[in-house]
Design a protein that fits this description.
Elements lengths: L19 E2 L2 H23 L4 E7 L3 H17 L2 E7 L5 H13 L5 E4 L9 H7 L11 H9 L7 H12 L8 E5 L6 H10 L3 E5 L6 H5 L4 E4 L17 E4 L3 E3 L2 E3 L4 H4 L5 E2 L6 H20 L10
Parallel strand pairs: 1-11, 2-3, 2-4, 5-6, 5-7, 7-8, 8-11
Antiparallel strand pairs: 9-10
Helix pairs in contact: 1-10, 2-10, 6-7, 6-10
Bound molecules: nicotinamide-adenine-dinucleotide (NAD).
Amino acid sequence: MNPVRPYAVKKRVDVPMPAQLLDGKTLAQHIKTQLQTWLAETIPQVGRPPGLAVIWVGDNPASAAYVGQKQKACAQVGIATCGGHFPADTTQTELTALIEQLNQDERVDGILVQLPLPEHLDSAKLLHLIDPDKDVDGLHPVNLGKLVRGEPGLQSCTPAGVMRLLRHYQIPLAGQRAVVVGRSTLVGKPLGLLLLAADATVTLAHSRTVDLPELTRQADILVSAVGRVGLITAAMVKPGAVVVDVGINRTEKGLVGDVDFAAVQPVASWLTPVPGGVGPMTVAQLLINTVQSYAQRYGMVVPATVG
Ligand code: NAD
């Protein structure tokens, strides 16, 4: 008979757990169901559905996909869409008149100009024309100003969607070091402000940042919003960091983000997939913004449980 051997004292080996997914697709679906239920009760009381005008100019194929996703999501929850697809040679004057008309239209709660616009158009001027109360993309200076001041207002969909995703997964933000790579007005800057408002210590990095890896390795929360395949490698991620990939890059293999997903998953604690992470949250936030704008018009409050 073999003698009973004492328990071997094994050297502790830290086996890294692969990052858990920040599943935007499932959360967005949940939000849509909640919105649909609330609207089914609310629309008969108000007498009309919420209305979103989508203005899409030219033939950018990415815009076609985004506009399609947004219209489909609106139809799913009960938001009526209008606006339309305009030829690439549509003039600034024509779009100005359209936005002014939509501002006055009582059936329209949200106006969205799908970017990018063809080069001959001045997108900033057009965005400034949108009634701030209908600015569901949160890009009007009034809404951006409210964001800076920490006042309630319509917030840019991608940054607000990212914050909603982090909140849903109870990712601690206060006192955490957040590094946002990308400083656009659409994503990087407003997201930096929202993380700051959540008491994170925020750094915005960009194309002129010196030694990006040295900076990203300090991040407890690392967000990439650049649009460059493979920008964020495993060596740039602090072990246990939460990594949010906003980037969307069209490759032969399909849609990929900025983060080397396979290499970073063993290092990070939480990670967004692409697709299925930030993208669906952007669309869900657009629905929330439109419904909030609609509710506000009638003095109603959308319950916090909705969305
Ligand atoms: P943008 O081109 O306006 O900004 C890109 C930013 O990246 C700039 O601030 C630039 O300084 C920075 N940058 C460029 N090269 C860099 C480098 N080598 N190192 C560090 N920073 C660098 O783009 P955007 O509109 O902010 O979008 C960024 C990405 O996010 C794109 O891939 C876009 O498709 C994607 N996006 C996704 C969603 C979504 O819903 N998932 C929404 C909006 C944008």
